Amino acid sequence: MRGDLLGLLFLLKYCICGDVWNFGGDIRDFVVGNSKLFVLTGSQLHQMTKNLSLEKTKNFNATHPNTVTLLVPFEANDTLITCGTSNGGYCEVLDLNDITNSIYKENLSTVPQPNEKSVAFIVNSSLNKIPNGAYLLVGRKADRPKNNHTVVALWSTLESQPGFIFSPSDYGSTPCIRTERYVEFIDGFQIILLKLSYLFLNAKTESGWQAFALRLNNAKGHKKDILKSITGTMLKCCNDTSRPVLVASALISSDKAVIWTGVFSAQNDPEDTALAVYDLSNVNGKSKDFCFTGETQCERQTYRYTNHTPVAVVFKYKSMSSVAAFRSESWIELFIGTKDGQLIKLVLDESFRPGCPTVLYRSDDDQKVLYRMHLDSKHIYIALKNQIRRVPVVQCAKHRSLKDCRGALDPFCGWCSNLHKCSTQDECSNSSWISLPKGSVQKQLFSFQVAEKSIREIILHLTLSLGSTQNPAIFSCAFTRGGVNLCDGSDPAVVFPNCSCSFSDQQLSTRASVTVEDQKITETLMLKNCSSITDHSTKASYTQCVQCVSAGCHWLSSVKRCDWTHGPETQLHIQDVCKDLDSETKEPEILSIEPNRVSFHGRNNVLLTGKNLESVTKIRIQGDLECFPKESPVFNRSNDRLRFHVPPSKTKGTVKVCAVTEDDRCHGNSSITYSSQPSCTEIKPKVTWKSGGRKIYVQGNNLEFVESIIANNELKANYNPSSKDMWFLMHPYDGSDPIKLKLKVGNVTLDCANLTQQPDPEFIGFKATQVSNTLTVTIEKKPDNLSLSIDEVNVTGLKGEKEHKCDLTLITHDVIGCEITQILNTVDSLNISVGNVLKTVYMSDDHTKYSYILVALILLIILGALVGVVVYRKNQNQMHEKMNKELENMEMNIRRDIRQGFVDLQTEKSDLIENVGAIPFLDFKHFASKIFFPEAGSLAGLMIKDIGQESEQTTVDEKCQAFATLIRNKQFLTCFVHALEEQKDFSIKDKCTVASLLTLALHGDLIYLTEIMEDLLQSLMDQTSNANPKLLLRRTESIVEKLLTNWMSICLYGFLRESVGQPLFLLVSALIQQISKGPVDSVTEKALYTLNEDWLLCQAQDFEALKLKVLFAVGNEGEVSEILEVNALTCDTIHQVKEKILQTFQRKFGFQYTQNIRDIEIEYEKKTGNFIMLQEVDETSEVREHFTMLNTLKHYEVTDGACIKVLTNRFHASLRSQSSVKDDKDFCIKYFHLVDPDIYKDQSKHSEKKEVKFKEVYLTKLLSTKVAIHSFVESLFRSIWGLPNNRAPLAVKYFFDFLDAQADRKKISDPDVLHIWKTNSLPLRFWVNILKNPDFVFSDMEKTPHLDSCLSVIAQAFMDSFSLAEQPLGKYSPTNKLLYAKDIPQYKQEVKAYYMFVKDQPLISSQEFNMFLQEESRKHGNEFNESAALRELYKYMLRYFKEIYQKLEQMDAPNRLKEDMHKVKDLFDSMKRSAWN
């Protein structure tokens, strides 16, 4: 049972389907060696048999994804060579029969990088027998052009070779080929018999990219001699269009010459590709761009360019991506991969003339065929994204007859008479094998000619385009009419493949039957009397010429008439013979075809518009991959339009379309594009009701190709081009089973989804209440799961015979709310329509009871009012009226705000990010300084090496060197730390400073720093004060805890930039955009859209959204830029408008505007054409007491679509940099914006104002903001606890394993303790700091107090995801807890899975982690001021010198340490004295 389960899991991970294997990651490369496949996916290498069964998998322990860049099988040595970039670069030799067995590994810095286009293969020299005389040729991109960089080198493959394995040296020199060009290698191979190697590459010349071929002579033996033999040529293609860029290539085997084929693309149109064949036997040119460098510099000799042009351009097709070649006798087979997922086979004859291309494989989607393909005798292996596929190179068995077998036009398929089937020649032994004639591809099987034998007698010559390995035992021809033999018996005996028949010229309709072995082929020949076809006039028609040639007659072009042939002649094409004759009729023209894009299943009822279409009989469709055109009859034909069906196609791509007339001529030049089939991913809603009429939306890909929906019946499909989805109206359905939806495409149906059906919605009754001028109606509905939307329900109220529209405001599973905006006490009934459902409902039974209660209440109010009149008289009555009015207004405002909040919540869309441009990451040293010294004092600047610092400030002099040596003694440093922490006046700030100084001083030796950190952590765990282990690392109260923060920051900086940086930047950008979508008070910075309740703006005025047309002044003469559309609000201040203009500019163009906000002014163009300057405050500003209201767009009456001009002092000298009113130190007490200044006065005098400000009404805005940015939050969280290439960052895995080991050491079995330790050490200590301080990671990012509060809410949700405690939430819980309450459980599950996955990963060896730490030290080795850090550390040693000395004695430290400590003090003191002197 367990084995079955494991097998099932295995199949789920790697879907195996016949000749297909699906991997978990994308395929980067694959090679074949020793009859095995080696497939590289991400950081895994798979060993497979040729029948695609998996044998072995090797995981590369790399810190960078996709690390392997070279993969070369060395079959003579039974090894596989791999090279990659992890740990600075390496090469490794693996066992070819077991890739998990590593034979040799060496660090190597010269390996190609992941993004380089490189090539590598084995070169066999003539020095020794293989494998002793073999080198590894490596061609790689020049990463430092202009410096004559190495691009080709020969590496040793054995220890016995010069310089040992992987060395490019050769007996004292390092020979190589250099260039000053940018290059990218495409292909390379050796020809063993000719002892030659070829390299193919693209080089960037002055005119653009250009393809080159380089040749090396392997027979020279030594590396130096081989490389010195370099010759080259420039490859030119093609005559019709210049295609200088090489895409892929293949060698065509030949005994006589070096025949090579390549795919070339145009410079500016990569999809315009052509396949050309070259003879590269003579590549003798010397190129100045590629030169040999040995013991001396690049030799400058007399160079000469040579160009090679194609022998033949054999195929032109869109987006070819790969090619492979195979030769068999006189035939050449080419296999072509395309970017849209097709594998095409093309046969060439001995003159390189192409036959008919056929498609061996076509993907359902558009996955690209990788550049690498491999051929064996029966299959070709191709890779598409994450899939390896084995495709048969011949598919003979599917042809059931000789005629079909010959019609395939595949020279490797023939009819085997013994086997009675279509087969390859290898499968057919001791038998005639009948196929295409050798050396030429002819499409037609039958060809015939008619000649005049004598008066009233003709002879018919018939030829079959067939060849055979031996003469067929049976070959005969019969010519009959009406079952009677026509031949007179005077003809010679038949000789395969020719036969003839003589008969009377009155018997012109004949049936030819040819018997070959066991196959009988019958063809009806429509013969005509040649001399009677024309009327012998001087003006012959094109039609007569066509009839003459197609009848097998001879057209006399000189006299323009038809005549009998005289003996066998070469069959001519109609186009060649009749091309000079014009038709007398008006030729049809094609203007358009709708639609002109279809799926490969075809399309019905396509509309063609044009001119002169009455004579069109059919539509002919010819694709580049089709030998024979497809034809479709026409219908509904008129002069200017007709319809036809587009037939299905086995291929994808653009095909030519023309209109065929009765004379078989084709007119017009239009096209149709075949694409992938449609697919549906989701339907909304997923449920309908019995009576139908519900609108169902279908989402997916290529839905424009769908002609109709099949849901028991055929339904009309409506496609929306803007949203790219489709919808249809569901018909009534009375069944109980789910409805299976299918997409009808052409004449096939594709599965889509299931639609559930439920009973019609039921409405029970309604209640109506008059409030002010609105009648509020509440409809009671039977609860259901239909999830009705407001758009689906229409409600009309009836009062007498008059109808009143009821506008919907609310729909739940049991209630519908709507409003009639008229003065009505009630309505008699309601008409409710939902799709095809139409119901009339009446008022609920308890309405009368409520009416009596309402009347009684009114009477009581009247009675109370009368008593009030008597008691309180007139002034009290006025107060009541005023109060009622205010209550009514308050109720209306609350209703409006709640409704608007509901609408915003339901219609919120996450359309925030347009273009963020390049992400402005801080470099490492400035990132580290913000982490190490977050207060950014003078100490932080001193610790970084920057240009302009004095050398003595950064030089590690004698005293600093001595102190550096001292702290590198582990016993001294631990005593130093413990002594400092024991002092009462040593504050937490001092602890953090010392930890950061230690980090900087020891950054060059991270291995030692890690060891110190581990020792100090163990000491911290062993302290008696830490009796509760769950509190460990919770706060930063010791040096080691800050040290851990710094260590994590150093080790995770690469992961932060590569995986987390972009999601974090997008989240912050989206949050800033969402806040600015609504009103933001310029004084208090409170906003309508926020995540934090404390920053929620409750006093927002009514506002409207505006789209401003912004122009930028770009000259002194009034020149302006193109219009930039900017979204703004009527309540925005002028300063806020400027900010939005600059933000929109950066989002659209990806970079900041050249001027800052203080250097620009904006003008508004009024309807009169005059421009007025918009200012934050001017003489027209509103003043309340001593408060001035900031001017807004509403103040200046700026309307939607208004034109705004941006002026700068660059083009307007009169403008100067203006200080904003926000720069005023009393800004908050002088000005106000949206928040009434009375709020900041004594509230006791305005108690009524305080009561009407209900913050709770606006809490939905918090949820709206959360919904808008939710996808960005989830993307960020999952990038943090995600696992690129199924592997955690090395530092995380290493430290978590360290914590596991400490738990074992202390015998802690509670799993919660370990969970808390890991949470406190990584998310709490590092990630929360990053989440709350994005300005630590990105430059030029202003973190406002409002933004900081919103990020705190997100950070709280992040930490709650790691919490083990379940916090009960209620209506009094903080909103920041409630906001993510439903998301936290899912995040917790993901966090637990993340911790478990990290724990289950293989352990990291100390060697591997030490290499990682050394690389981190090396990368940033010269960025910090180690001398300054040591001097600052010494101040603490001097301050607590006595205590440190006592701690050394207490720990029985050797006397040498104490002496060294005194020596350091003396050195510093002497330096002070010399400086004083």
Describe the structure.
The chain is α+β, with helices and mostly antiparallel strands. 26% of the residues lie in helices and 31% in strands. The strands form 17 sheets. It has an eight-stranded mixed β-sheet, with no helix packed on it. It has a seven-stranded antiparallel β-sheet with strand order 61-62-65-64-63-66-67, with no helix packed on it. A five-stranded antiparallel β-sheet has the order 10-11-12-13-21. A hairpin with a 6-residue loop joins strand 18 (245-252) and strand 19. Helix 12 crosses helix 27, helix 21 (1311-1321) runs parallel beside helix 22 (1323-1332) and helix 22 runs antiparallel to helix 23. It is globular, with a radius of gyration of 42 Å.
The separation of the N and C termini measures 88 Å
Mean pLDDT: 83
Rg calculated over all Cα atoms: 42 Å
Globally, the shape reads: globular
Strand fraction equals 25-35%
Topology:
Layout: H1 2-13, E1 20-22, E2 27-33, E3 36-41, E4 44-49, E5 54-59, E6 68-74, E7 79-84, E8 90-95, E9 98-107, E10 119-124, E11 134-139, E12 149-156, E13 176-179, E14 183-191, E15 196-205, E16 208-217, H2 223-228, E17 231-235, E18 245-252, E19 259-265, E20 272-279, E21 291-293, E22 307-308, E23 312-318, E24 320-328, E25 331-338, E26 342-348, E27 358-362, E28 374-375, E29 379-384, E30 387-392, H3 402-407, E31 414-416, E32 421-423, E33 433-435, E34 446-454, E35 457-464, E36 467-468, E37 475-481, E38 484-485, E39 498-504, E40 509-516, E41 519-526, H4 542-550, E42 554-556, E43 561-563, H5 574-578, E44 589-594, E45 597-599, E46 603-611, E47 616-623, E48 630-635, E49 641-646, E50 653-661, E51 666-675, E52 679-684, E53 687-689, E54 695-701, E55 708-711, E56 713-716, E57 718-720, E58 725-729, E59 739-745, E60 748-758, E61 763-771, E62 774-781, E63 793-799, E64 802-811, E65 815-820, E66 829-834, E67 837-842, H6 847-907, H7 924-932, H8 938-942, H9 951-954, H10 958-967, H11 970-981, H12 988-1001, H13 1006-1022, ...
Parallel strand pairs: 17-22, 45-51, 53-60, 68-74, 73-75
Antiparallel strand pairs: 1-30, 2-3, 3-4, 4-5, 6-7, 7-8, 8-9, 10-11, 11-12, 12-13, 13-21, 14-15, 15-16, 16-17, 18-19, 19-20, 20-23, 24-25, 25-26, 26-27, 28-29, 29-30, 31-32, 31-33, 33-36, 34-35, 35-39, 37-38, 37-40, 40-41, 42-43, 44-46, 46-49, 47-48, 47-50, 48-49, 50-51, 52-54, 54-58, 55-56, ...
